[in-house]
Design brief:
72% of the residues lie in helices and 2% in strands. By secondary structure, the protein is mainly alpha-helical. The protein has a two-stranded antiparallel ribbon.
């Protein structure tokens, strides 16, 4: 695959992440966005390095002032956005290293989202405590930032696995990590 095609796919996934930010599906627990779906799919399709690069493009666009974030860097949820980069990388790393099949891609998406949680939750706690002056307890963090979003993120992981499985059939040459 040519360098121009790889960069085009990176830009495409950066745009999909930006679009996914603004697509909201109301649910009884939390609104569901497609941001994390496109983040892990970037890694699964492009591989670890290019998937992370596509997320870096998205983050750089937001930090430059383009309206791709729902908040700002001072927003307590910005840690999730920071976690998108290693989350995409890990999903891509798993896709590169293991047999290309639905279960691999789904587990790669789960691992990527877990990394996003690992960055987002501590950042949220720190910003709440030291910037907003509102300390949250461990139970509150667990309920609101793990248990409540878990069903939606599990569904997005399965959807990512299914989507990548379909893309692998129809566009096998677009998987930059394929040998």
């Amino acid at each position: 695959m040519t360098a121009a095609r790889k960069l085009t796919l990176c830009a495409l996934f950066a745009a999909l992440i930006a679009i996914g930010t603004h697509i909201r599906i109301p649910t009884p627990l939390l609104p569901l966005t497609f941001q994390t779906l496109f983040v892990v799919m970037a890694g699964l399709v492009l591989g670890g390095k290019l998937g992370a690069l596509s997320v870096c493009v998205y983050v750089a666009a937001g930090l430059a002032g383009l309206p791709v974030f729902t908040g700002s860097a001072l927003n307590p949820t910005f840690g999730y956005i920071v976690g998108f980069i290693p989350g995409a990388w890990l999903a891509g790393y798993i896709a590169e290293r293991f047999e290309p099949k639905f279960m691999t891609w789904t587990l790669g998406a789960v691992a990527g989202i877990a990394v996003i949680y690992a960055f987002g939750i501590p950042y949220y706690w720190l910003m709440s405590k030291y910037y907003l002056g509102n300390e949250l307890g461990a139970k509150t963090l667990l309920v609101y930032f793990v248990i409540m979003p878990l069903p939606g993120d599990a569904a997005k992981s399965i959807l990512a696995g299914l989507a990548v499985k379909r893309l692998a059939v129809f566009f096998p040459d677009n998987f930059t990590w394929k040998r």
